[in-house]
Design brief:
The protein is about 20% helix and about 20% strand. By secondary structure, it is α+β, with helices and mostly antiparallel strands. The radius of gyration is 20 Å and the shape is elongated. The model has no long low-confidence stretch (mean pLDDT about 85).
Length: about 140
């Protein structure tokens, strides 16, 4: 099986809500990113329109392979983070295990890899998204 990756960047031109399902029916929360399922739906809609498939899209071999049989993975579109003038990296969710020491600035520890000492107190790292330093 061949594996290919298509990188892309887009800008939402208006606010969008990607609902988080919660127990409170009177509250609507939105994800801070575009879910892969929404990307899949948008690309499927563009394919249907470009091929003029209409209501018979489900009979098209490419449509079946790309959108129904999940042979193509549509990853979540996380925000791009600007790291320098006009240079961006794909953000990734900050893992819950990444903790910030309360008393020392810029000291972080991944609690999956090490247990804090008795005199160290940590709290969850702030921010929703980050990127990993190093080569792309």
């Amino acid at each position: 099986m061949n594996t290919y990756q298509l990188s892309y960047r887009f800008t939402l031109r208006s606010p969008a809500v990607f609902q988080i399902i919660e127990n409170d029916p009177n509250l609507v929360l939105s994800e801070g990113y575009v879910p892969g399922s929404s990307i899949r739906g948008a690309v499927a809609g563009l394919y249907i329109a470009s091929e003029k498939l209409g209501s018979i899209a489900h009979t098209d071999k490419n449509f079946i392979d790309w959108f129904l049989d999940e042979k193509v993975a549509f990853l979540n579109a996380y925000p791009c983070l600007e790291i320098a003038d006009d240079e961006y990296r794909r953000g990734l969710p900050v893992p819950a295990s990444l903790q910030h020491e309360k008393k020392i600035d810029n000291k972080y520890k991944d609690l999956v890899k090490s247990i804090p000492k008795a005199n160290e107190t940590y709290k969850r790292a702030e921010g929703s998204f980050s990127f990993i330093h190093g080569p792309r």
